[in-house]
Design goal:
The protein is built from ten helices and five strands; from the N terminus they run βαβαβαβαβαααααα. It is globular and about 45 Å long. Strand 3 (54-57), helix 3 and strand 4 form a beta-alpha-beta unit. By secondary structure, the protein is α/β, with parallel strands linked by helices. The longest helix is centred in the C-terminal third of the chain and has 15 residues, at 181-195.
């Protein structure tokens, strides 16, 4: 049986001990490999490494911020799934990161075992968030009722999009809506067509920037 290639994870973190700890955790876990660990976006972009599947990056970095760096990293590796790993859980940074294209938003208090679960979930197309972050996102949307805007999304599609933005994957979104994951997948494809996007992070960013949840 041919073994599956490891999930390659890039780490961008300026705190040396924390960065080295993340690299050791990733390299010490079967199915994962840390393909690079650097202290800034600029340093990361200047280095050669195996194509990463995921990136764990802080927000407060020397030079370019992690939020600004998301588009830079995706520009170099278009299939990359960036995940923010930070101490900040305020609404503005969370929404800015999601609008910039982050595929997940995790807090640094996340337990190592849970962090590895989140990496696997992201590699499978999920959008992991720490519970505190997911609650804040839900609260923001509760205060800002969704509008159909010019994209003509149905109430059903808006609800699915809202669940995905809040960190749910197809399976958990389906459970909350009482439908199958296949049905959710079908509706997500329709959402992508209406928003003229090709990925979850692009859909989230466009929805927020276009005022779908204003």
């Amino acid at each position: 049986m041919i073994p599956h290639p490891p999930i390659n994870v890039l780490v961008v973190e300026d705190h040396t001990a924390f960065r080295e700890g993340l690299a050791a955790l990733i390299n010490g876990t079967a199915g994962f490999a840390c393909c690079g660990a650097w202290s800034s976006i600029e340093q990361t972009l200047s280095r050669q490494c195996v194509r990463p599947d995921l990136a764990l990056l802080d927000i407060d970095l020397p030079g370019m911020s992690g939020i600004e760096g998301i588009s830079q990293l995706k520009g170099r590796w278009p299939s990359l799934y960036p995940l923010v790993l930070t101490v900040h859980d305020d609404d503005q940074r969370i929404l800015n990161a999601l609008c910039a294209g982050a595929n997940g938003y995790l807090l640094k208090g996340t337990a190592p075992a849970r962090l590895l679960e989140c990496l696997k979930e992201a590699a499978e197309g999920g959008a992991p968030m720490s519970p505190e972050v997911a609650r804040r996102v839900v609260e923001v949307f509760r205060k800002r009722p969704p509008q159909k805007a010019e994209f003509d999304l149905t109430p059903h599609e808006l609800r699915i999009l809202k669940l995905l933005v809040s960190g749910e994957n197809y399976k958990t979104a389906a459970a909350k809506m009482g439908v199958t994951a296949h049905a959710v997948s079908f509706h997500v494809r329709r959402i992508y067509e209406k928003l003229h996007v090709h990925s979850r992070s692009d859909a989230v960013a466009k929805a927020l920037r276009s005022g779908l949840f204003d």
